[in-house]
Write a structure and sequence with these properties.
heterodimer, A: mainly beta, 5-stranded antiparallel β-sheet, 61% strand, globular, B: mainly beta, 4-stranded antiparallel β-sheet, 11 strands, 0% helix
């Protein structure tokens, strides 16, 4: 079974700060998702990546397959970025997603 | 309209009652999933379906059943609800990993409380 660990569990930042959330997993994967969940809200997929780096606006996601590690970066953080960020990995050639427990990000004005 | 729609969004029921949560999608995806989210835990897979005739148990299927009525519809039933099934339930869809992007789309969630 793939173990997915996220760090930190909780993160508080001031508006404008650069944010990094980390995700490590134990078994080789075919892809990794970063998801965002606002309080009381649904879950939105931010990125799916299997190698390298992707950027969307102020969000950047990177993955190092050899080190079994991914990071989600937020530049110029804003209070509306406050949410839970969840890492999910796709195991091997099958469907199965394994989720981390999430990182609660709070960005203060 | 949302890509993935769940109904009801909130439900309070009593122990022993039968409950159905419904999910419909407009993405045309083959794959549909039901997950459960509890505070402090990651999302846990209840059931998944790769097409109308292919339904599989997930990690925590006991006490639940599902029906894939059409490609677009996947419903979750609790035959006899119990309090520890109180949770937030999510439906999700995706393409097959060999197609398109394999992106996931989630519904808004259904909050179920069993008294």
């Amino acid at each position: 079974k793939n173990e997915v660990e996220q760090s930190p569990q909780n993160l508080t930042a001031q508006e404008g700060e650069f944010i990094t959330i980390n995700c490590s997993y134990s078994v080789g994967i075919s892809a990794l998702h970063w998801l965002q969940q606002h309080p009381g809200g649904g879950i939105v997929s931010l990125f799916m990546l299997s190698s390298g780096k992707k950027k969307h606006g102020r969000l950047i996601a990177t993955i190092n397959i050899q080190e079994k590690h991914s990071s989600l970066h937020i530049t110029a953080s804003h209070p509306r970025d406050s949410a839970v960020y969840i890492c999910a990995v796709v195991g091997g050639s099958n469907y199965k997603l394994t989720f981390g427990k999430g990182t609660l990000l709070t960005v203060n004005p | 309209d949302a890509d993935v729609t769940q109904t009801p969004r909130n439900r309070i029921t009593k122990t022993g009652k039968r409950i159905m949560l419904e999910c419909s999608q407009t993405k045309g995806h083959d794959r549909m999933y039901w997950y459960r989210q509890d505070p402090g835990l990651g999302l846990q897979l209840i059931y998944y379906s790769f097409d109308v005739k292919d339904i599989n148990k997930g990690e925590i299927s006991d006490g639940y059943s599902v029906s894939r009525q059409a490609q677009a519809k996947f419903s979750l039933s609790l035959e006899s609800a119990i309090p520890n099934q109180t949770a937030l339930y999510f439906c999700a869809t995706s393409d097959s990993w060999g197609k398109n992007t394999g992106e996931l789309f989630f519904g808004e969630g259904s909050r179920l409380t069993v008294l």
